[in-house]
Specification:
With about 80 residues, the protein is mainly beta. It contains no helices and 8 strands.
Length: about 80
């Protein structure tokens, strides 16, 4: 399982995910799971049902922030940057 962190409590278009694994060692594959750590310390596990070159589809389940705000399930296209 790969680990990433977000500087916010929600994902949105343009969100930056920080790789928590050793740089250059993470290789995304279809079916991988990502452990997401949000800025409030909440953890959620997403899945990559599709990986294509330098992009992947990230599916996040419904989850809750520490303040119990519900974040509905969504799918996002994520791309590698610099």
């Amino acid at each position: 399982m790969l680990g990433v962190s977000l500087p916010t409590t929600r994902t949105y278009p343009g969100s930056l995910l920080r790789n928590l694994d050793v740089p250059g060692h993470a290789r995304l594959s279809t079916g991988d799971e990502l452990l997401m750590e949000f800025s409030d310390g909440t953890l959620a596990t997403g899945q990559l049902p599709e990986v294509d070159g330098s992009s992947a589809l990230l599916q996040m389940p419904t989850c809750h922030t520490q303040r119990r705000t519900t974040i509905e399930s969504r799918a996002w296209r994520v791309v590698a940057s610099g």
